[in-house]
Design brief:
With about 475 residues, this protein is α/β, with parallel strands linked by helices. The protein has helices at about 5, 55-60, 85-95, 115-130, 160-170, 185-190, 210-215, 215-225, 240-250, 295-310, 315-325, 350-365, 385-395, 410-420, 435-445, 475-484, and strands at about 15, 25, 35-40, 60-65, 80, 105-110, 135, 140-145, 145, 175-180, 195-200, 230-235, 255, 265-270, 275-280, 285-290, 335, 345, 370-375, 400, 430, 450-455, 460-465, 470. It folds into 3 domains: about 5-95, MurE/MurF, N-terminal domain (Udp-n-acetylmuramoylalanyl-d-glutamate--2,6- Diaminopimelate Ligase, Chain: A, domain 1, 3-Layer(aba) Sandwich), CATH 3.40.1390.10; about 100-325, UDP-N-acetylmuramoyl-L-alanine:D-glutamate ligase (3-Layer(aba) Sandwich); about 335-484, Protein-Tyrosine Phosphatase, Chain A. Helix content is about 30%, strand content about 25%. The N and C termini lie far apart (about 60 Å).
Length: about 475
């Protein structure tokens, strides 16, 4: 594709060279540059890719896209200047891969908690109805249950090139629908610019990612950007910012909820260890729904998925049949079977609200003691650490404070910050820095009928310790304990 074709929707200045060049590859990583590539110099929080433009040229770049002029670029290399290279990269990737999101039903899910479960539920329901549904998210990027060949680099919402390449691959696999997790970072950093969202879903807003956004107001504004980009909004009527979204969305708004009036509303909810059942009320109709995933938060996730699938042209009966095929999400309220009659749950809960939700849900279905193993990630919002300590202390009989992904921070210091909240409660607790030892100790202390919640890492199979990444899987550790 000619460079000028890739740029035709952008405002740009040609600093040198011609835009009539044939471009055979686009990338932002100088190490992946091939002959006749367009190298896009994006600025991130930690790395400015302008510093690698010369290296990209040595590796074969025929053109570079920049926000400011870069010295020592040969005259035969085209240099194009734009105001925002991240936004430009998204527009270019969208064009380069053939505008793929216009060719299927794209459903974006944003919110602090529930994104993974909602996208997973949607894909399962659509697939059960004969649709070829894909997922872009934290656990996997897949189509029809088959992992994509496009390399997954970002843990949740990919960068715009990877995202558009993934969409293009999904088109080749016959995608009819794609459910995608849309993070606040992705919205702020223009990764989903030009994505043709048919439906945008909002789950909830609670404290998280303040290390990036600074304030809850900024965090909220980032989330709300999705509802300027979609044709239909589906939002949680019980959340505190529901009214804000209604006021500022540029599209029709559909609501779901439990406590407040909503278009899709759940009533007569019954919880058990095996799952949850409720009556779904919509437009004068009432349907009985059973889901094999316990907890009140699962009802919200199911309502969001039901709403999205209904407005993706499935009937309520088709949707309910699809819900019957859902048997859990990796690392989300995932029960680890054992012969000791201990309820062991591995969950990704790593924010104050998600930890509170999981513990309340466990309290609803167990009569024994609740033992919680958890930590907090390093180089992330520090203010949530004592909050999570207090929540765990108020809702647990015993807490084991341990390491999560300490990254570049001292794990002992993180544990001590969590402890400040724990001290406000009467909960018994221990501090065990080694996560494996902490899990073993929790299981040692558990008796028949007790529940052990291992929170924070969920589906993750690694632990980040400064510059080192080691293999670590909470489920494997639990199974190792019981096998011994």
């Amino acid at each position: 594709m000619k460079l000028h074709e890739l740029l035709n929707e952008l405002s740009y200045e040609v600093i040198q060279g011609t835009v009539d060049k044939e471009i055979k590859n686009i990338c932002w990583d100088s190490r992946k540059v091939e002959s006749d590539s367009l190298f896009i110099a994006v600025k991130n929080r930690n790395v400015d890719r302008h510093d690698f433009a010369a290296e990209a040229v040595k590796n074969g770049a025929a053109a570079v896209l920049v926000e400011h002029e870069v010295l020592e670029i040969p005259e035969w290399v085209t240099m194009v200047k734009v105001k925002n290279s991240k936004r430009a990269m998204a527009a270019i990737a969208h064009k380069y891969y053939g505008e793929p999101s216009k060719k299927f039903n794209l459903i974006g899910v944003t919110g602090t908690n529930g994104k993974t479960s909602v996208t997973y539920f949607i894909s399962k329901i659509l697939y059960s109805a004969g649709r070829q549904a894909g997922i872009i998210g934290t656990v996997e990027n897949s189509i029809g249950g088959k992992k994509l060949k496009t390399e997954k680099l970002n843990p949740t919402t990919p960068d715009s090139i990877e995202l558009q390449q993934s969409f293009a691959e999904m088109i080749k696999e016959g995608a009819t629908d794609v459910a995608m997790e849309v993070t606040s970072s992705a919205l702020d950093q223009e990764r989903v610019y030009k994505c043709d969202f048919n439906i945008g879903i909002f789950t909830n807003l609670t404290q998280d990612h303040l290390e990036e956004h600074g304030t809850m107001e900024n965090y909220k504004k980032a989330k709300m950007k999705l509802f300027k980009m979609c044709k239909k909004a589906i939002i949680n009527a019980d959340d505190i910012i529901a009214q804000d979204i209604k006021l500022h969305a540029d599209c029709p708004v559909i609501t779901y909820g439990i406590e407040n009036d909503a278009d899709f509303r759940a009533s007569n909810i019954k919880y058990s260890l095996k799952g949850v059942s409720f009556c779904l009320n919509y437009n004068g109709m009432t349907k009985k729904v059973s889901l094999s995933v316990p907890g009140k938060f699962s009802v919200y996730n199911a309502l969001a998925a039901i709403s999205a699938c209904y407005f993706s042209n499935l009937t309520l009966d088709e949707i309910i049949l699809g819900i019957n095929t859902i048997h859990g999400v990796p690392g989300r309220f995932e029960v680890v079977p054992n012969d000791k009659d201990i309820l062991v749950i591995v969950d990704y809960a790593h924010s104050p609200d998600s930890l509170k939700n999981i513990l309340i849900s466990v309290r609803e279905i167990t009569k024994g003691n609740v033992i919680t193993v958890f930590g907090c990630g390093g180089n992330r919002d520090k203010t949530k650490r004592p909050l999570m300590g207090e929540i765990a202390g108020n809702l647990s009989n015993l807490s084991i404070i341990t390491s999560d992904n300490p990254r570049m921070e001292d794990p002992k210091a993180i544990i001590e910050e969590i402890e400040q909240g724990m001290l406000k409660t009467s909960c018994a607790y221990e501090k065990i820095e080694n996560r494996k030892e902490g899990i073993f100790e929790a299981l040692n202390r558990a008796n028949k009928g007790d529940a052990v919640i291992i929170a924070g890492k969920g589906h993750e199979t690694y632990q980040i310790l400064r510059e080192k990444i080691i293999h670590f899987d909470d489920k494997e550790v639990v199974n190792e304990y019981f096998n011994k």
